[in-house]
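It would be a great kindness if you could assist me with a short task in structural biology. I am sending you one protein, given as its amino acid sequence and as whole-number tokens for its backbone shapes. I would ask you to consider whether the tokens describe a fold that such a sequence might reasonably adopt. The full record is reproduced below for your convenience.
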Amino acid sequence: MARRPLPRILGNGTTSLARGRDLARTAADSATDVLHPLLVIGRGLRILAAAGRRKWADTPKDKRGPALFLGAACVLVVALVPYGPLLALITLMAAAAWRGRDRTPVKTGPSEAETERLGALYEALVPYFSIAEDPNPLFAHGG
């Protein structure tokens, strides 16, 4: 019995392979866009849970009982209030979204390499923007 040749994946079908790759990339980007709020809320819930555990660990052992009683009383009141559980859930999700948001610091200025490149560009352009006879030049070598 003769051997059958292996299928050629990268043969004449490179355009369909590239199209499939683009389709997968687009689908991944769309999924990230759709799931981003859930990721933010999940990150916020994790941060809130860690803060609660840290606060509970920092609470002295003799005050944990009254704190637990107060928490249980609050849960009971929320459960008995009309729309209380829904409002509590909305409040928890809002707090989680607030805590889970991405708070990367805004870049305030150019980096050191960018500053050097801007300085070199400035020095290169000074002869074109300055006039030698000007007593108070706007552009001069050295800034």
